[in-house]
Amino acid sequence: MSILTVAYHSITPTWHNDLAVRPERFALQLQKLADRGYMGVTFRDAALGDQDRKVVAITFDDAFATVAEFAAPILRERGWPATVFPVTEAVTSGEPMSWLAADGNGAPSEALLPLNWEQLAELSELGWEIGSHSRTHRLLTRLSDAELHDEIAGSREDVTAHVGRCASFSYPWGVLSPRAIDKVVESGYEAASGLAGRFSRHNLFAVPRFAITAVDNDLRFRMKTSTTVHLVRTTPLWDVLLRVRHPEPAVYSR
Question: Is 248 helix (H, G, I), strand (E, B) or coil?
């Protein structure tokens, strides 16, 4: 049995940014996974399922509108579902996801537009999973108890009201904390995932993912989807590697 979970953001040919993977590269990466024997499933099914085959959960943080335009057709051709983690207030407002431009990347506003609720419901009908990425994408470690409840439990209520179900959570900025994990469990989620740091094995509420970006060449993609690298990520050796690569504390992904 081999379970793999990876995170994408935008799939688009027009926005040149680390978060934006070109559609042809995305299709090639899926083909490479298929060639290695992987089958696409939703994040929840990958985390909870008693798999007797190699499965990969393709996930999308933030719910860019480009997911429906470019990623969904590629996945549909392969017959694979995926999981989208929307920021629910952005979906409701339809406004560009402003926090993604905070680093001065000069992104055009159309590149930052989110999916709407109708599009998310359509993806759900196609077999995709719609999870949550909080209400406003704030760093959870900085919030009060009431704010933490609003971001985690409130966003699950938003998704459930529009789509019918919300079983999985993606921690904003990829950062986990014991308080956030406890609130995710309390709020009724079945699984959750982060991107930053070392992870324990077999924790349904701290499932590790690697973010796939535009700068990931074939070698980097192979490393990020390597079962050996994922195993190392559960050991103290990963902490050493992080300190070498990031001497100062950092937020690792959006």
Answer: coil
